[in-house]
Amino acid sequence: MDPRQYPDQWGRFGQFGGKYAPEILMPALEELEAHYLKLIDNPEFQSELQGHLADFVGRPSPLYFAERMTRQCAGSSLTHGAKIYLKREDLNHTGAHKINNSLGQVLVARHMGKKRIIAETGAGQHGVATATVAAKFDMECVVYMGRVDMERQAPNVQRMEMLGAKVVPVESGSRTLKDAINEAIRDWVTNIEGTHYVFGSVLGPHPYPRIVRDFQKIIGIEAEAQILAKEGRLPDVLVACVGGGSNAMGLFWNFLAKPSVRLIGVEAGGEGIATGRHAARFEGGTLGVLHGAKSYILQTAQGQIAETHSISAGLDYASVGPEHAMYRDQGRIEFTHATDAEALRAFHDLCRLEGIIPALESSHAIAHAMRLAPTLPKDKLMIVNLSGRGDKDLATVMAASGAATQAMEKNGKGRA
């Protein structure tokens, strides 16, 4: 399998992806693709990009051996308990992997002569990253964000505004990421001439899934070199959370053609699949088109987008990147889910075991890693992508932890 053959000339990953966009956007998408293809292999552009990634973003991010977490998972077993490493994207400038993509797209926009940047954001990390890069290059920046997400990610709203961005609350629909994307697309249609839309994940119409993937694949390229330097061989398992799927595709892409490496994406199981209050697209999603691309979507029998739920604003999206959908159907990437309660427990475990406060998105990956590691022999190597830090989630975590404790005390089960 050669992952470089995707997307095809039509922007498709097998039957997924494509370019389902209003006619007025087609010239802008074609302009973006033409400039991107011209720049991405240009040595001067790459030199400029790599320089900013090193000096502004702080790459390479470390590959950290989580020694206490590994021991906790092994317990008293003498034979089992995989060795766990964390790829520390949380240590990037602005605290998440999102800045890899925002930096790359803003540099492309500058080469295209665009003066105005717009973006959408759910958990706020993509908005903060885009506002940061726009400030660095003195560009106007507008970020669309659902009202519900603004309330649960208030610190990131303040950060965006401090960086000079205008944050526009979205009051339509469920007032989350899906609705923020709708508003950003409306803005782009209206102001298409001088505006570049920085899409935040491996979603949307072609060429966005490819562009975002290409700017995020540095995560896996670094991880491979780092694990070879530390252990002298490839990892056995990679684990990453999947909302749209940019951090996961960034980690996985360099390993897709290495069949010995098992790839696992972890979706948001919310309050449990059976409750219907979740955002696990591979647990009941069906084929459809959302925001310009064909993929698995949580939708009603009438084709309306279903309401989704996750304790993590960054995973609360009804669709999934089309490249993930293709590799899932091919059996190359496995998908599972972690519930809100499991992610919350993993959040606290990582805080106490390793002195690291993870984002709630990343906590879903940690939760599955801690389930899986005890079942694997001790000589197995696992890398978990720690996609972001959890400062932004403290209010959500404290509220949820308090509610969980009260519920357990009420049921006579003591403290969680």
Give your account of this protein's structure.
This protein has 416 residues and is an alpha/beta fold. The protein is 43% helix and 17% strand. It has 15 helices and 14 strands. The chain has a 6-stranded mixed beta sheet, with helices on both faces. Strands 7-6-5-8 form a 4-stranded parallel beta sheet, with helices on both faces. Strands 1-2 form a two-stranded antiparallel ribbon. α5 (125-136) links the parallel β5 and β6. It is globular. The model has no long low-confidence stretch (mean pLDDT 94).
Contiguous low-pLDDT stretches (5 residues minimum) are none
Major sheet: size, sense and barrel closure? 6 strands, mixed
Counting helices, strands and paired strands, the structural category is: alpha/beta
Strand content: 15-25%
In DSSP terms, counting alpha (H) and pi (I) runs of 4 or more, how many helices? 15
Neighbour order of strands in the largest sheet: 3-4-14-9-10-13
Helix content: 40-55%
Q: What is the overall pLDDT average?
A: 94
Q: How large, in whole angstroms, is the Cα Rg?
A: 20 Å
Separation of the first and last Cα atoms: 46 Å
Strand tally is 14
Name the overall outline. Answer: globular
Describe the oligomeric state of these chains in a short phrase: single chain
Q: What is the H/E order?
A: EEHHEHEHEHEHHEHEHHEHEEEHEHHEH
